[in-house]
Amino acid sequence: MVIASEQLPHMSADELREAVQSLFKTLTFKQATIDKLTHENAYLKRLKFAAQSERFSAEQRSLLDETLDEDLQAVSDEIEQLASDDKPVRVKEQPKRQPLPAHLPRVDIPHEPDTTTCACGCQMKRIGEDVAEKLDYQPGVFSVERHVRGKWACAKCQTLIQAPVDVHIIDKGIPTTGLLAQVLVAKFADHLPLYRQEAFFGRAGLAIARSTLGAWVGSCGVQLQPLVDALKADILQHSVVHADETPVQMLKPGSGKTHRSYLWAYAAGAFEDTRAVVYDFCESRAGENAKTFLGDWRGSLVCDDFSGYKQLMAQGVTEVGCLAHARRKFFDLHASNKSQIAHSALEQIARVYDIEREVKELLPDERRRIRQEKSKPLLDALHQWMILNRQKITDGSATAKALDYSLRRWSALTRFLSDGQLPVDNNHIENQIRPIAIGRNNWLFAGSLRAGKRGAAVMSLIQSARLNGHDPFAYLKDVLTRLPTQRASQIHELLPHRWQPQIQFT
């Protein structure tokens, strides 16, 4: 709440008292947040500069160092954003940088005023220029952008003008959005930790310190978070959502050990128009994490039989089972001992999937009609067959467990029959989890909770871009270019399923 000085004489005592209380609450909240982030910043610095006392392998140490650099930069950016609302920004002394290598190709990008005619009517003369060099990267090729800002002066009235330079995602930094996009895609899509990228850039003839790369990733994570929040909001507007989770190790720096954390994945229904996925990094597998993410959302949740989802069902969320999970129980049983019961179950479930392939591209009403006509009789017969066979099987056996899994969840497993918008299984979200499982072999672990959440956010945008057929590098480069000047009310235009690249004329 902002009060202009000219408003004060026209406000009553009660209005002034209310305004002061509102401003005090706002100030208290911001200061508490700044104090929290400042404390976290100090803690991260202690970890970074006292890390030699921890017992890590060389590879583990490098991964921890880069996540600390990312976290430190992200916290600093958040503190600066909060403080800038109320206090004048203190200009930092820029460190002296080594000039960019002379052998790299240069591309001049001129910035000149729209008109060089002075307000007094005189024609200005060019008296010089300022040149700022930024390091650009196209896959496999380094180059330098030279932003040349001509200086124009009027000899008569001593007026000096220069064209402004576009706002950059990292103000006064050397990387272009192309280089930033490459670092993010390499780390979160190609699963290359920053210490490997540092070596890669070194072989290309340009040494970029790992701490610098980490600071870039941290800043980008903060800037991209509003986009991920908007992506989450879009997913939760749909009535059908997929959910799944996979373990990821997270480092506890104080002890030098890791513990099991989880990356949760949520996506709009497989038959929905919105092709998007959001990852949520959490310290545990507790059902409270899914409850927090979904909030007030009430719809059909496609998930497995994990108990963490059960409290959602008690609050009005409709459970939709995964037939692929039920099939997997019989597949494992058949693979281990060639069970005839498992073989028969697999054959009957296969007929249902044959029908699903037929109706995949149909409209929901038509899909529902065919399911009722063809799939329902098959599943009713399968249900009776399971009940009869279960009566003959000894409790506790592998066959009994496979049958019990399906019988216990039969209502959820067959809910897709009565709603053409529901998928038959949860394979859609499992396919979005697969890149995470591949990446774990390279990540080893997340260096902190903040690093895990930042990685989840960037991977949400990258994987959503892939789902929509976009090149993640081209998408992130364009988004990072446009984001600093994009209005908050139009942030949805940059979401992967709505994104249209800007046409550039050369």
UniProtKB/TrEMBL annotation:
Residues 172-453 form the Transposase IS66 central domain. Residues 86-108 are annotated as: Disordered. Residues 116-157 form the Transposase IS66 zinc-finger binding domain. Residues 37-109 form the Transposase TnpC homeodomain domain. Residues 460-497 form the Transposase IS66 C-terminal domain. Residues 86-96 have a biased composition (Basic and acidic residues). InterPro entries: IS66_C, Transposase-related, Transposase_IS66_central, Transposase_TnpC_homeodom, Znf_dom_IS66. It comes from the Bacteria. This is Transposase IS66.
